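thread: overnight batch results

M.L. [08:02]
morning all. the overnight job finished for the chain we discussed friday. pasting input first so we're all looking at the same thing
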Amino acid sequence: MTEILDILLSASFWAAILRIASPLIFATMGELICERAGVLNLGIEGIMVFGAFAGWMAVYAGLGLWPGVLVALLAGMAFGAVHAVLTVPFGLSQHVVGLGITLLATSSAYYAYRLALPEVTSPPRIAPFQPLHIPVLSDIPWLGQALFSQTALTWAALACVLLTALVLYRTPLGLALRAAGENPQAVEAQGLSVAAIRMGAVIVGSGLMAVGGAFLTMSAFSSFFFEMVNGRGWICIALVVFGAWKPGKALLGALLFAAFDALQVRLQQTPLGAQIPYQVFLMIPYILSILALVLMSRRAEVPAALMTPFNRGDR
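M.L. [08:03]
and the structure it wrote out:
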């Protein structure tokens, strides 16, 4: 217990929580936008993989870091457009299309990697985003290292939560988007296009998912390697449910999962880690997240029209 308490009180632990949560925040906000509009996007895992590759490859090819983020964003939006066209106007199964997008995006990233770097045995490195030094705040003992030693992309992830909440609950666009996932007939009665709103939400949401993947190669690490996303996309789908389709609660869910993950990494480095197989520690974040999801999701209200195709004129 003393070792766990020391971990919980260390500034590096809390800094790691924000760092681990950042890609989850981007992708969770993207999935939340999609589902709020009534579309389940199971392509999130593959879109994150391709975003990680596209952003890293753009920087490796000579573009700057922020242009690399833009490339990842556009790549994700392209896959989102494919998903949107197949599921909204054509009304195909959102489950099948989403899984197909995951397979397509993942395979495309691996193929492009081998095509661009056919003889490379270890992934080349790029110069990633560096932690920002915020005058005065970064110099505060403990707090400066824990909260104010993050990269620009982490702050962008937090800003994304605020922006998502403002748009959803403080703008006519957000009201129309939420109505498209709750009562699309009411949206059509107002003379708005349900298809356009849903497609736009899927495209924008997919772009954010790809930026979440790009965080891994451009901020957390400095290279692209296979399996680096490692199921984070599926975790983000669970975080949307955990957060009851609300940005603030979804943020708390991402931070909670990141805390479990950061804790298990540090527990492996304690004497306890020599006595227990490391696989047990790897299971901890997922087991605790499942328990939290079960407890929280019982009171969650699912968008009424989620996964329900809508054709113009339907009543």
